[in-house]
Description:
Blueprint (H helix, E strand, L loop, with lengths): L3 E6 L4 H8 L3 H4 L2 E4 L1 H7 L2 H9 L4 E8 L3 H9 L5 E5 L4 H13 L5 E6 L5 H10 L3 E5 L10 H11 L4 E5 L17 E4 L1 H4 L4 H16 L2
Parallel strand pairs: 1-2, 1-8, 2-3, 3-4, 4-5, 5-6, 6-7, 7-8
The structure holds ribulose-5-phosphate (5RP).
Amino acid sequence: MKPLLQIALDELTMENALKVLSGGVDEIVDIIECGTVLIGSEGRKVVQQMRERYPHKKLVADFKIADSGKVMAGMLLDGKPDYLTVICAANQKTMKAVVDEIKDRNLTTEAQMELYGNWTFEELEQWKKIGISHVVLHHSVDEKGGWTQKELDLVRKLCEHDIHVTVTGGISYESIELFKGLPIFCIIAGRSIRKAENPAQEAQRMKDRIIEIWGN
Ligand code: 5RP
């Protein structure tokens, strides 16, 4: 299966986020992400607004929940996202509270674990027991330089663990190739699409590149 393409909308305003999507990006990408920056800047209402505008599109609420799992998940789940992110540094009780809140609301939302910094494969197995079997491996936006061999080896190892593996951070048309041969669930691109002269053209170019590498 080829990886899906997700646009990370890390804009400061909903108006700018919608501008990025206009012109065809919304049709081209598989998943629309209400980014941490957008939710932090405009509030949880953006998830609901995006859902109203795109009722049938896969939607991510990326707020990297770290604590107060029930309340934080609840406020984002009002927008019925398909995916909701939790950060790996969170207490496992917080992770469980997020998963329980999804269940209590009878939603099909999937909790994704955002991998930053220190975590272990032992913890990964514990997260799976809690009900989280989708991880997002980050190359930090604040990191200078591209993906390192160490990070790519980690992606490969994660792919051997019977979970969905999504990758993000500084991914462009040129760097998609780095993940060749790996069963990646989704490639997230923010700046490389948002800052392109023609975002729709760039999103299409990236989508075509994914098909060239993984097949259709
Ligand atoms: C940061 C994020 C970013 O949205 C994601 O990593 C995309 O980054 P880039 O703009 O480098 O493609 O989750 O918190």
